[in-house]
Specification:
Length: 174
């Protein structure tokens, strides 16, 4: 796993934001889903927000497992993943879309905070399985979108495959 150290020997908080374990949901271990969230046969893709891969590359993360299949019309990119070990993304960068799965922000409020959430239909988890994850996803996307207000347009416009509004947690509906 990639990590970095400060001069005092402590892990760098900036770098730790991007480790493959981020967004891990403990309840996944009880599912026999075959990591279906890492499979891309149904026309789905990883939504890469504008500038995400450039940032990961500048931090030294491996990106070879991510195969770009196009750009969206709002400055982001679409990718599929060819990692052979989904448990650690082949030691490479785990996009925020992946770390957020099965959740994704469905819209932001006027301050850039996540106001609605949607979820991927192919994940077998129940909403009660990911209450803590919902808080993490909401907080992480809100943090990034408040830091980069221009991402609000991308979040509102990105077109995902196989997502539905959630019925619990942050305000529903997309
Ligand atoms: S980057 Fe990691 S989480 Fe995302 S599809 Fe690839 S293996 Fe799965
Ligand atoms: S997030 Fe859902 S689809 Fe992905 S490993 Fe966990 S249970 Fe399976």
């Amino acid at each position: 796993m990639l990590s970095s150290r400060t001069t005092k020997g402590q892990p760098s908080p900036r770098r730790l934001e991007l480790v493959p374990d981020r967004g891990k949901i403990p309840a996944c271990a009880q599912q026999d889903c075959g990591h279906r969230c890492c499979q891309f046969e149904q026309g789905n893709f990883i939504a890469i927000y504008p500038g995400e891969l450039q940032e990961a590359k500048s931090l030294g993360y491996k990106l070879e497992h991510l195969r770009l299949i196009g750009e969206d019309t709002h400055g982001g990119q679409r990718a599929v993943c060819v990692a052979s070990n989904c448990a650690d993304c082949d030691g490479g960068y785990k996009p925020l879309d992946c770390a957020s799965y099965p959740l994704f922000p469905g819209g932001l409020d006027d301050h850039g905070s996540v106001a609605r959430m949607i979820r991927g239909e192919k994940c077998p988890l129940q909403e009660t399985d990911f209450a803590a994850h919902l808080d993490w996803v909401s907080s992480e996307w809100s943090r990034i979108c408040r830091k980069r207000p221009e991402l609000a347009h991308w979040v509102a416009a990105v077109d995902l495959v196989g997502y539905v509004p959630i019925t619990n947690g942050v305000e529903r509906e997309r």
